[in-house]
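Hey, quick one: can you model this chain's 3D structure?
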Amino acid sequence: MKPKSGFTLIELMVVTAIISIIMMIAVPNVIQWVSTQRFNSGVRDIQATIESMRLYAAKENSTATISFTAGANSYVTTKRKRGIGDVNTTTHKLPGGITVSSTMNLVFSNLGTATTFDTVIINGGGGACLRIAVSITGSSQIKNCL
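Sure thing. Here's the predicted structure for all 146 residues.
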């Protein structure tokens, strides 16, 4: 007589229990990782916007402004074209749970330099905090909150 192939009910239940335990351990870590990555991505997007506005001002020989409002989950960019009087204003939304906690207007001159030295502080869920320091030369750098 041939032995029967397959799994017993007990074997299936043990494997299901092991998979369930592994999932209970892994899912919270994955959720935290996704939240952290979303926050870091939002901060990098803000820095990329700062750099692109700086380059725009220098390229167009004009001014560019980024307006941040404390507690908001968005910021506004304004591009001006020299001589034409053309103004382009755009509102940029941040991913959910990310807010800017500093109110400021960051203005880039036609040389691509910032008119003032300033820092944008960005807060995320779970107490995450990063800041973007903008130097008078217009360059920006992501740093940890102090």
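One thing worth noting: The beta strands are 64-68, 74-80, 87-93, 99-100, 104-108, 118-123, 129-134, 140-144.
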